[in-house]
Request: fold
Amino acid sequence: MSTTLRFFRFASPAAFYPLAGKLVPWFGAVAAILAAIGLYLGMLRAPTDATQGDAYRIIFIHVPAAWMSMLLYVVMAFWAAIGWAFNARLASIVARAIAPTGAMFTFLALWTGALWGKPTWGAWWVWDARLTSELILLFLYAGYIALVSAIDDTRRADRAGALLAVVGSVNVPIIYFSVIWWNTLHQGASVSVTTAPKMASVMLLAMLLMTLAFWAYAFAVIFVRTRAIALERDNHAAWANDSVARAPVRQGASS
Amino acid sequence: MNWNSAADFFAMGGYGTYVWGAYAVTLACMAVEPVLVAMRHRRARREIGGAPR
Amino acid sequence: MSGTFAVLVARDLRLAARRRVDVVLPIAFFTVAVSLFPLGVGPEPQTLRQIAPGVVWVAALLAAMLSVTQLYAADHADGSLEQMLLVPGARISIALSKAMSHWLLTGLPLVVAAPVFGLLFDMSAPAIASLVAGLVLGTPVLSLLGGLGAALTLGLRSGAVLLILIIVPLCIPAIIFGAGAVTAVESGLSARGHYSLLGALLIFTAVLAPIATGAALRIATE
Reply:
């Protein structure tokens, strides 16, 4: 019971702020190390694919980016909903902090997908089910960011964003299903443009490591953004003054 | 090691433009985003109390 | 609850009758938008027949979204919406009635006008029938989702454009199944699967969207 209460202490921006500050460098280090190993395995050790040649190596950033984009949307909706249901401000702040990073990963998934598709299938963009769904996910992120930015009242923006994110999450399976339906209808057979090659274990390991690296990166960036937003919102609060007084702003440094 | 030489590595079997184009943009985004976020945080710290210090 | 619903719909229709121009605008937009495509794409009948379902559905979607803010905006501006929301349990009735009013004023005219546009695009009779059937099932979904968007963006400056951005992704399944039904019929296949999916989508949306819209109204006005 007491440990639970101690944990909930971090639900306040004031308590979360220093904790996040300590964790960010660790997440950054983990991200760098995992990425280094993952890229070493994927780029230097993994064999060349028989069908796709070395173009398939884009998979080591395309798939992690796509997974992160989808995971972050659900996590964002979750924290936004918590913030709405329990009137927990920090949860709402975290949700807002996730959105830009999630959108970035979605863009990367689309960009790397296009660069993978061009040599493999000959076109920069193909309307296959997965890429089209990623594009729609980008619209969902854009909609969330646009909505919360358009509302001046902070709490109204948080709640409206939460509702939109939850509605979006509920719709994602429906949208995905309809896109697959649409794709098979118009291509005859379900053709996935960017099919992964048969995976040797070193490829799988590299992909997994890159996914974990992206995840650690996301934690680091989102935590810093959360700190920034918390300070922006609690501009006049005592805790904000204290934290800044304790560690005054040095030129060129901030995490 | 999968590669015989550095030149082979950069050529990526002829797909170099695509592979490195993908990795370059990814690296750029994941380098720029932390910088932008850090700048935002720094600005927030400077403006505690409602006015820039 | 049904009493409130009927009263609100009647009220909206009466108000709309006084501003007939506003009612005609979505249909006018729809007409112009649909007619632009042959001008852009070329008059080749084969091409037009192929793009017709997609064009009609997208135009219907945009026409619906452009007109949905009107239904809430006037009541919000003069404060009557907040008054209506004071009645306990009214939120869902309001959401449903606004969606119904919107459908009667925008969706239903679209359904009636669709065969004319079908002829403009040289569609066959079964294809036109399929288009109308799909629109009958799909336009209420658009009205329900549009109402959610209107409630979320209540009173915001960015209004209609923001609404389109946040709601259009949610409308994609309706477009896919609706336009797909016509394509299926034109290829000689059965569109039964499409209609079933549209029907399921309509039921799902009709049950959940008013609840979400009611929550959005509460968020926007408290």
In short: The longest helix of chain C spans residues 45-77. The two ends of chain C are 23 Å apart (CA to CA).
